[in-house]
Amino acid sequence: MSYLTLSLTLIFVLIPLILSRTLKLGLEKDTLIATIRSIIQLLAVGYVLQYVFEVDNIIFIVLMILLMIGAATQNARKKGATIHGITWKLIVTFVFIEVLTQSILLGFQIVPPTPQYIIPISGMVIGNSMVLGILFLNRFTAEVESRQDETELILTLGGTPKQAIHTQLITSIKASTIPTIESQKTIGLVQLPGMMSGQIIAGADPVQAVQFQLLILFILLTTAVVTSIMLGFLSYPTLFNNRMQFLKLKS
């Protein structure tokens, strides 16, 4: 695809802009910002990855992964700003997910230890973990705030912090993982995943593309569940003090 051809795809940006202006939705500014940022960021990443792939140095691979983790943490922490120490909790979660998935992939030689595989897969893993983290934190803080009286009542009756927060925690974990699980139920029937479609368009064997897509789907399933559980069990203890008293979320 040439840059001239790519510029024609801006028609797909123009359509929502016209609709937003016509219906007075007020989405024009955000749409333009999102479009400009995506163009700049993706082109910049494209050139950086081209260099990293050519150099094939472990240092650059690690730096790229750390950059992804840093950006994901910065974005996700906004949704959990009311939870004490949420920044380091997110970092620990993202690092653990990355180490877990790459250890399995490289340890069992499922994929080659090259930047062409490590970096894209890491991007999908960390990106998905970030989205799941945001979903979990958004639901968890809402559950905690809406059920403060129930939490304090359980503590008053002699319950432990884990018992007092159990319902909110489990509800939030399930709610944040449901979209990933449900989307996998209809994969291939309702939608063709981006990675698979990209490989097919690039000329890859459809069966080979399906195999790689299944790999990613299974990884993302683990990412979804582990992210929500880790964030949940790292976050809930900070809602209580040493005397097992409930601390309201900071504003």
Mean pLDDT: 88
Strand residue percentage:
under 5%
Structural class from helices and strands?
Answer: mainly alpha
Q: Could you spell the SSE succession in H and E letters?
A: HHHHHHHHHH
Total strand count, please?
Answer: 0
Shape: globular
The helix content is: over 70%
If helices are DSSP runs of H or I spanning 4 or more residues, what is the number of helices?
10
Instruction: Give the low-confidence spans.
Output: none
Could you walk me through the main structural features you see in this protein, from its secondary elements to its overall organization?
This protein is mostly helical and 251 residues long. Helices cover 76% and strands 0% of the residues. Helix 5 (86-107) runs antiparallel to helix 10 (206-235).
Keywords:
single chain; 10 helices; 251 residues; globular
Question: How would you summarize what this structure contains?
Answer:
This protein is mainly α and 251 residues long.
Write the layout of secondary structure elements.
Elements: H1 3-8, H2 11-23, H3 28-55, H4 58-76, H5 86-107, H6 115-146, H7 148-156, H8 161-185, H9 194-201, H10 206-235
